[in-house]
Amino acid sequence: MTYTSDNRNSSPPIPSGAPQGRTNVDLGDDTAALIAAVPAMLGFRPENSMVFLGLSRPADDRATPSGIRPTSSEVGPVVRADLVEGAVTGAAKALIRANSHRTDRSVIILVVGGDAGPLVDTAVRLFRSAGHLPAAAFLATDLCAGASWWEIPLDGSGQGAGNRDWPIGALPDPASSPAAGHTAGRDPGEIPDQAAFDRLLDKEPVPQHLRGLLPACWTGRDHGVAGDYGVAGEDGDVGETSQDIVALCGFIDHLATVDDQDATLRTLLGDEDAARFITRVCCREPLARVLVVLSTGPFGKTVQNLLAGTARIARGPLRYRALVLLSMAAWCGSGGVLAHRAAHRVLVESDRPGSPGVPAGQVTGGTLQLARELVATAEQGRPAGVIARMIDGGVRDIDDTLVRAGDEGVGELLGRVVDRDSVSVVRNELGRRARW
């Protein structure tokens, strides 16, 4: 089961010149356009799946944003399930729970690549009993340009269809969807298929050239990931922290210019100092906060690549820490599915018998608690307060670094990698919705 981020944050905005309020993506009123937006909203192209698109309006809906039709609904969350009854039931209940505080609740059911008539019936019954009236159901052969789609009956295969002329058509290119252009840090053409997305968080064998070179905290031999890293705490000299923040911003600025960021990371890890620096970035609270801030803007994809690459190679608590930060970074980039999966993976792996980091006390800095909070945020529709706090702290750390540096070059670097408007938009609403 997978989720998009869909949670409102009522905390005061960070002052900036950015427009306040909700950030909306208008998908128009065309059914094919809505279906084609699903890969961008999920973050991957689902196959052999049932997808639920929640439609609703906020309970405190005030003025409709400029340029948005007053009758439009907000889309979200978007929840995907395998074509088995247990998964479909769990996904339906998750959407019902997430939108329980909203008004004008309804849902669109989309089946991708398979015949799922009885499962559609199951979902329809669940939604109707909870007051989330199904608006329509569709079947698409695939979610790519030119794929066929058509509407299917809500009340059983063929029942109630009568002589109705059911809509049918071909999908536009999902990469051209307005939703694809509003996902922070992602090239619209980079939406992976489901298999590639599933592999994103898997462990990979340590590359041959790194064996014997990586510090113990990367291999899981040092279960505490402690040593001199000030893990998940405020340890460390303030001046040293400021230097590390400048180094982190310079590192992300450089990594963003590289075509193959994963290969570059693997090369850098051959240098023990670089490996230890990345450990500090993941495990020292001020650096982790700044990394989350950087994930809100144009460098968001680079931050996600760094954390995903670290998680694939690292073992034990460092892997868990990278996954939790990846979850936060994905959330800031409107990648709620990746956010949920990364945090959920931490809970699953750390709970396995003999896993490093069990009991929880061995995972320093409350990594497991963060993972639990992020999963609950995704699955229960709660405000993403933990991410808001990280962003607030990261902005303060960056501002303190600017004051301490007093250097024009540092100011230019931080101004280049920190998009204050993007920070404000994401901070004001960590769960952005599309309009339909």
What would you note in describing this structure?
The chain has 17 helices and 8 strands. The chain has 2 domains: 149 residues, no CATH class; 243 residues, no CATH class. Helix 7 crosses helix 15. By secondary structure, the chain is α+β, with helices and mostly antiparallel strands. Helices cover 45% and strands 11% of the residues. The N terminus and C terminus are likely disordered.
Which tags fit this structure?
436 residues; alpha+beta; 17 helices; 45% helix; 11% strand; disordered C terminus
Short account of what is shown:
The chain has helices spanning 31-36, 38-42, 85-98, 117-129, 194-199, 216-219, 238-255, 261-268, 272-283, 285-294, 300-313, 316-332, 336-350, 367-380, 385-405, 408-417, 420-428; strands at residues 24-26, 49-57, 74-82, 103-112, 133-140, 148-152, 168-170, 433-435. It is built from 17 helices and 8 strands.
